[in-house]
Amino acid sequence: MCLIKKYLKSRKACKVTFRLDGEKAKNARTIHVVGEFNGWNKYVTPMKKKKDNSFTAIVELEPGKDYQFRYLVNLEEWENDWNADNYIPTDCGNCDNSVVSV
After folding, report:
1. Which of 22, 47, 86, 96 has its CA 20 to 30 A from that of 68?
2. Structural domain tally of the chain?
3. At residue 1, does pLDDT exceed 60?
4. What's 67-89 look like in SS3?
5. Phi, psi of 38 (to 5 degrees)
6. What residue numbers bound the domain in which 44 lies?
7. Which residues lie closer than 8 Å to 91 by C-beta, 6 or more apart?
8. What pLDDT, in 10s, does the model give residues 32-53?
9. Residue 95, domain CATH
């Protein structure tokens, strides 16, 4: 897993590449990145499967903010990004959300 941040020079924005590696993706058919930046909508940010079985998605975010997110595997199982910038406990009490700071 890895978060890659690319700040744009032409305007105030940061393109963040979210990546879930093949080992964590297991035999996933679909993975979506779900978070504050997309209203926690499970369907709007699908990730693309790569030849190495990893999944990636690029999301443009406004700099100067922290965004909570998680990965949703096969629309059933939640996975964190263990290389995230931070973690915040969720309301469910037994899990954390990953955080990307841009």
Report:
1. 22
2. 1
3. no
4. EEEEEEECCCEEECCCCCCEEEE
5. -125, 25
6. 2-101
7. none
8. 999 999 999 999 999 999 999 9
9. 2.60.40.10
